[in-house]
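Continuing from the previous page...

OK, I double-checked the sequence for KIAA1549-like b against my notes and this is the correct one:
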Amino acid sequence: MVYTASVVVEALSVYGIERLMADIRQFVPLVQAIPIPAVPWRPSPAISMMLMTVLRFVGPGDDLKSCRFTQMMEQRLENAFAEAEAIVMNSHSGLTVQILSTSQSMGSPAVSLIYVVHNGSVTLNGTTASNLLSQLTAELVGYFLFYPPLITAELNISSRLCSDSGCGKLLSRRTVSQFC
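Thanks. Re-ran it with the corrected sequence; updated structure tokens here:
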């Protein structure tokens, strides 16, 4: 199983750098230090570029923390955006999706996907991307994602992030798909 970078970083943070270093020194006595990057190599996109899609549920075999799940949902979102673009603009520019975070609240089957949409090397404004995907019915978006959405493409995610998981917690994580 390959885990996303944000899951690994979170697990290491919970475990503690001091405990990690002690374990490494115990098993590899010559190690003096491990470099820990202070900033991600790719800056996080502005919150105005981010979208959130909330799925009612996912399959029991889907591991939200795995790169496989992230890549699968990126592909499905890209298919949904391609359909929306074909219907609305009668064109196809090859939009790509980069999932930044996946999360599930304790006791809830709903799964939140936070992502940005790219057109080549340019990140689409969140309003533009949200309006494009919102042209599809919830049923059609669910068809492409294989799971029914509670929220198709919400733009203002900052208040939800603060209330669901501690303000900025998801925004401070490293980009998931750059490591998958």
